[in-house]
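Friendly challenge for the regulars: who can give me the structure tokens for this chain first? No prize, just bragging rights.
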Amino acid sequence: MTAVNKSPRLHTIELTDNGLYCPALEAYIDPWKPVGRAIITHAHSDHASMGHGLYFAHHDSVPILRHRLGDDIDVRGFDYGELLDLGGAANDAPAVTLHSAGHVLGSSQVRIQSGEGVTVITGDFKIEPDPSCAPFELVQCDQLITEATFAMPIYRWPAIESEIADIVSWWRHCAARGKTAVLCAYAFGKAQRILAELLRYAEAADEPLPAAEVLQHGAMETLTELYRRAGIAMYPTAAAKDADVLAGQLVLAPPSASGSTSMKRFRKAEIGFCSGWMQVRGNRRRRGYDRGFIISDHADWPQLMQLIDGSGASAVFPTHGNTDILIRYLRERGRACEPLATAFSDEE
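First reply, four minutes later:
Bragging rights claimed.
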């Protein structure tokens, strides 16, 4: 197959020092420096930063943005598929809509339709079903700007049901030995997904889980409550700081807690970590965890291929991740492709 060497040119969107910019809208998408108007794909800190004049996001993101950035931010919420009124844009400005990205609660892809065609910015996404957020929506487009966090063929996620079963088995193992099972997961998104999946597991299980509640670190408490207010069903939780008995408990904690002084409270504990990085042999050992569970809120390689092929995009612009391998793969198969050097992080 003849390789494609031609570098495609972005239409509608420009890459600037502040972030991805749409001149016709006078608005940025997930800017990393303060700007006047910012369309936010989701509320993780590398995509939603402080200091913008106006924020535009899915309505489920609004309470989380206020929690993370402050109650005084000027943020306007929209439904999926609703035409965004950005206020002040020209009458002939491109049409903008949000579409579910399946990453975390309120996560959105941004669809921009102009006279030059349709551009979709995925933000972070996954196609795998997740009971803690709306399912991913495949959006047709001419140009696709996509994350590439796990854009290598080795990344292929196991079924979430098997990983949750492994977590429960590990929890039972710890409980039988009078230990605390401390499970490290990111405080926004990953922790709530685990709680939602544990509820589904418990409802179908023949025997109850080792404890009636999962204990959670203080960094997660408000976020979990915001998920519950949004109607997300999750396993019951309690504050870890208030627990008198820790043996036999499952404690959810952010990765930053591992190795911190707060861990000294758990005198007999095993520590696990949920991440797509656990797919690679040796990562668990190098990071000092007793157990690793392959649970990711990003797309793996097959999901990336499903997105790119299903979108119908004639040009693909990967960003933040393993872009080199993906670009070479796509070009060898005849698709125009060019990397975008953005400031988004590769944390998972």
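The longest helix spans residues 160-176. The radius of gyration is 21 Å. Your move, everyone else.
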